[in-house]
Design goal:
The complex is a heterotrimer of chains A (145), B (113) and C (107).
Chain A: H1 11-35, E1 38-39, E2 48-62, E3 65-81, E4 86-89, E5 101-104, H2 109-141
Chain B: H1 4-27, E1 37-38, H2 41-50, E2 61-62, H3 77-110
Antiparallel strand pairs in B: 1-2
Helix pairs in contact in B: 1-2, 1-3
Chain C: H1 11-16, H2 38-65, H3 71-105
Helix pairs in contact in C: 2-3
The chains are: A alpha+beta (145), B mainly alpha (113), C mainly alpha (107).
Chain lengths: 145, 113, 107
């Protein structure tokens, strides 16, 4: 597991945050795309993709001992949580059942929009952390100039 | 009388360590059950100034006063960003002060002509 | 991270104090009145400057190996090596000046 050059403080940690939020944004985009799809008779409704995150640690050798240090966040899993389909009255629709009801995906577009805003904000926060680290490194380089 | 140059060097060390902790908090802003951690600056600095060579630095500890949300997470993104901002400013100030100290020494050395 | 690479006591301070370390040059006998031979003192300063420069080099290599945790470690060590070197050069210049004055007086 490459730690990379330690030039910008904590850059690898913040990068794991960027990766995690990017994955969340991808999952949310997928969910939004599936939100307005119909469920054919006999098919199982597509659930919403959910990214499961966990704190990441690295084992580092310091002072002749092995330490467990925080290394950011990691994507533990991406799961599909089922959402029950909604029934919408649309007689004449090719996927309508005998009573004229169509099953629509139970994914809530509003919930996904909130999730997207959340992930975007978190992404930008990690970016700010990297910028702060870069400022620190630049200032350190100026020692003695 | 504390040696200012050594003090400034240690402050840079502690500030850099705190930045790592804060960055890890931010990365875990959405991790369920994650509790934010922090380095108490003065205690860590005092420990670093008095420590023996090879002695490990103080580690970041869980901030017990931070409120948790419904998923058990206690990170507030805006608060964390504020901490990072303050900490960065502290780091820059120390680096600048250290730089001036060294420049002063060089001037004193050369200026005796 | 290891905050305690340097023991208490500033290294730069140590090198700026004119105390003899293990001399690498065997100069003439120490002054019978007491005190170290000046040649040994000079050799000590050169040694300390050398040590600081090696420290700086090591921290730069540490960037490549990942041993160095902070950029400021590198810049601080480089600066300290530079200041010690400046001091050494000034001492050398003063010695050369004094020697030349002495030569002129003897003519």
């Amino acid at each position: 597991m490459g730690e990379g050059l330690g030039l910008i403080p904590a850059v690898s940690i913040s990068t794991t945050g960027l990766d995690a939020q990017t994955r969340r944004m991808e999952a949310t985009a997928q969910n939004i795309a599936n939100a307005n799809t119909t469920v054919r008779p006999g098919e199982v409704a597509v659930g919403r993709q959910e990214v499961i995150l966990a704190a990441k640690f690295a084992s580092v050798m310091r002072n002749q001992t092995i330490e467990k240090v925080p290394a950011g966040v990691e994507i533990r899993n991406v799961v599909e949580t089922p959402r029950d389909p909604k029934k919408v009255f649309r007689p004449g629709h090719p996927d309508a059942d005998a009573e004229g009801f169509v099953r629509m995906s139970g994914i809530d577009p509003l919930e996904e929009m909130v999730e997207m805003m959340n992930a975007t904000r978190a992404y930008e926060a990690n970016l700010s952390a990297i910028r702060a680290g870069r400022t620190m490194a630049q200032k350190a380089l100026e020692i003695g100039k | 009388m504390v040696d200012t140059i050594q003090l400034l060097q240690r402050m840079l060390d502690v500030s850099a360590a705190r930045h790592e902790t804060l960055a890890a908090n931010l990365a875990n802003a959405n991790t369920p059950d994650y509790k934010r951690r922090d380095l108490p600056f003065r205690e860590t600095l005092a420990h670093a100034m008095n420590a023996q060579p090879g002695e490990a630095a103080l580690q970041a500890t869980v901030d017990k006063s931070a409120p948790t949300d419904s998923k058990g997470n206690s990170v507030s993104t805006s608060k964390e960003l504020t901490h990072i901002l303050e900490n960065t400013l502290l780091y820059e100030t120390c680096a600048q002060a250290l730089s001036r100290k060294y420049a002063g020494m060089r001037k004193a050395i050369k200026g005796s002509n | 991270m290891n905050i305690n690479a340097t023991p208490p006591g500033n290294r730069l301070d140590e090198s700026l104090s004119i105390e003899p370390r293990a001399p690498t040059v065997v100069g003439r006998q120490a002054d019978p009145r007491g005190g170290p031979a000046f040649k040994d003192v000079l050799a000590g300063i050169v040694d300390q400057v050398d040590t600081l420069q090696k420290d700086a080099d090591r921290s730069i290599q540490g960037l490549a190996t990942g041993e160095t945790r902070n950029v400021h470690d590198v810049t601080i060590k480089m600066e300290e090596a530079g200041v010690a070197f400046d001091l050494m050069m000034e001492i050398r210049n003063k010695l050369v000046d004094a020697y030349q004055q002495l030569m002129r007086m003897q003519q």
